[in-house]
Here is the input.
Amino acid sequence: MKIRQSTAEDFEALYLLDQACFTAEIAYSRRTLRAFLRLPNMMCLVSDAPDGIAGFILTDHEGALGHVVTLDVAAAFRRRQLGSALLAEAEGRLAAEGVREMEIETATSNEAAIAFWKKHGYLASGILDGYYGKGLDAYWMTKKLIKDRGL
Ligand SMILES: CC(C)(COP(=O)(O)OP(=O)(O)OC[C@H]1O[C@@H](n2cnc3c(N)ncnc32)[C@H](O)[C@@H]1OP(=O)(O)O)[C@@H](O)C(=O)NCCC(=O)NCCS
Here is the structure.
């Protein structure tokens, strides 16, 4: 599966996929998504589908700390290792930039995502009460890239 950097033309497809992947409380508005994409260290990697975007990952980093803002795979493309491929590509690029530790927030109710992150070596390091709004808590999950990459 080919993974490429996103371009400005992808914006609406990214927005629609994010809306499809998350509930209204968690999905990003156009305004928020646009603001993320404009941040200096933001990286957005995309995998194309024949009629749109199959998945994308959005990351940010500051110094040695990398942050997965979101990872979205369209329902029709799930459990085909696309999310894993996007994450591996992003982690590899971030490691090359000097990132040594990754973090992600994911809703405590999102069982698929929690299983996914655990499979990729992310450990729940804390609970963020009300992170997505009242009663919607998140796990703060982290992973050291150095150990996993044998550096
Ligand atoms: C979480 C998500 C990104 C996973 O993407 P994916 O392409 O389906 O994941 P992969 O095929 O690479 O899965 C890798 C492993 O993660 C685990 N996993 C993924 N989805 C799972 C599920 N629904 N239930 C249990 N384990 C799951 C499995 O161990 C899987 O390996 P296997 O298929 O060999 O058993 C995808 O389900 C998604 O986009 N969900 C909606 C948005 C979201 O929740 N994003 C993450 C929060 S930021």
Summary: Residues 82-96 form the longest helix (15 residues). The domain at 4-149 is CATH 3.40.630.30 (Aminopeptidase). The two ends are 26 Å apart (CA to CA). The mean pLDDT is 94.
